[in-house]
Structures are given as C-alpha cells and as structure tokens.
Design a protein that fits this description.
The chain is 40% helix and 14% strand. By secondary structure, it is an alpha+beta fold. A two-stranded antiparallel sheet has the order 1-2. Strand 1 and strand 2 form a beta hairpin. The longest helix has 21 residues. The termini are far apart.
Amino acid sequence: MTTTISSRGQVVVPAKLRKKYGLRDHVRVAWVPVDQGLLLLPAGKEGVRASRGILKGSGVSTSFLMDLRKGERQREAKKLKSWPNRF
C-alpha cells in the first residue's frame, strides 16, 4: 500500500490499516526511525497495548528505543536550559 504526503505534510493512513490497528480519530501516533525506514506506532496507553509485539523480528531492540529516548531527553533539556535566555 502506498500513500502521498500532502503539501501540508499530512499523510492519509488507508482505511484497511486504520481498522486493522485500531487507529481511530484523534488517536496519537509516534514515528520511529529505524534502519529500514520509519515505523508508525500508536502512542499513549492504548497504543502500548495495541503495539505489543509489533517490533518482533524487525531488528529494533529495546536498547535502541531507550537510546532514542535518551537523545530526545537530552535535546529537551538543552532547549529548556536555553529558554530563559530568549527573553
């Protein structure tokens, strides 16, 4: 299945996949970069249950995801550190 990214950066998830993975209106999703491309995963409490086992056999390890989150936390901390200097 393919889709097109709009000029506003929007992507339509095909109805068949939305139904299969329980992606309803206003469900948050997370984009996860992996060596092979991008993974689109449901985010939040409901998403954790829905995505259980989805990465099995994909080569994405828990340590990779933990390192990814560590990098996000470092970038967030850096932004917060520089925030008071903007005013």
